[in-house]
Amino acid sequence: MRSEAVRRVIRAYDDWIVRGYCWGRFWILRQRFLDEIGQYLPERGRVLDLGCGFGLFSLYYASVLPEVRLQGLDRNPRRIAMAQAAARRLGLTNVSYDVGDVMDFRGGERVDAVYMLDIVHHIPADAVRPLLEQVAKVLPAGGLLLIKDVDRTPAYKRWFTHVLDKVMDPGTPVRYWDADELMATLTESGFGVRRHLMVDILPYPHILYICVRQ
Ligand SMILES: C[S@@+](CC[C@H](N)C(=O)[O-])C[C@H]1O[C@@H](n2cnc3c(N)ncnc32)[C@H](O)[C@@H]1O
Questions:
Q1: Which of the listed residues 75, 162, 168, 198 should we mutate to test ligand 1's pocket, taking the one with most ligand atoms within 8 A of CB?
Q2: Could you give the percent of the chain with pLDDT greater than 70?
Q3: 121 lines ligand 1 (CB under 6 A)
């Protein structure tokens, strides 16, 4: 049933290249990982997807968590237009999208949770802490920030992921954080942090940081 939700999301995009991309993303972050991340999301309330890309994951979570109101933000207007069109096609009214740079994110209304999937390594290193501090401001004490990113070890998995990142988006800089360094930055930004290792037989060094607003 939930895999049917994935298939419905993929079918909601008109462009076959984007469908192929989404198929690839859902192959990398497949059902098991969607569940591993999704288990931390609230069952109701407001959730932000920062750097949402084409919106595939927010569309998926909006489908399976109908009482959650999701809001996606990405700097790429084409991706946001596609996410909006796909949401309309799926008839989802609990998800919305805006164009914007996460480095300009200043929040506003309180939200119940925030997630960032494979975004932190695309943000200039010195902009990460200011972003985390802004995210901390929109979360209540106990609110969750989920960061799925790429670990630096083992090196062969990191290099494999680096090549893919460069093929997908050659112009965007990539900087994979050492897990201890990112955890220290998260702690300094007001979060209690633990790691959830997302062990994959494929060569992806996934790492999920479960960050609780202190
Ligand atoms: C690897 S994709 C991940 C997209 C989506 N989170 C996913 O998991 O499929 C990286 C995304 O980050 C977006 N991005 C990179 N830097 C950004 C920034 N400073 N502000 C907003 N979006 C950004 C890109 O436009 C792209 O859609």
A1: 75
A2: 99
A3: no
- Average pLDDT, stretch 42-60? 97
Domain extents for the chain? Answer: 2-213
Please give the mean pLDDT across all residues of the chain. Answer: 94
Q: What number does the ligand 1 atom closest to the CA of 127 have?
A: 19
* pTM, 2 dp: 0.94
Phi, psi of 162 (to 5 degrees): -60, -45
Cβ neighbourhood burial of 164 (10 Å; 0-12, 13-18, 19+): middle
Per-residue model confidence (pLDDT) at position 1: 45
Pocket of ligand 1, candidates 30, 34, 73, 119: which has the most ligand atoms within 8 Å of its Cβ, to mutate? Answer: 119
CATH number of 2-213: 3.40.50.150
Q: Is the pLDDT of residue 210 over 90?
A: yes
- Is the pLDDT higher at 160 or at 45? 45
Nearest to 84 by CA among 65, 61, 59: 59
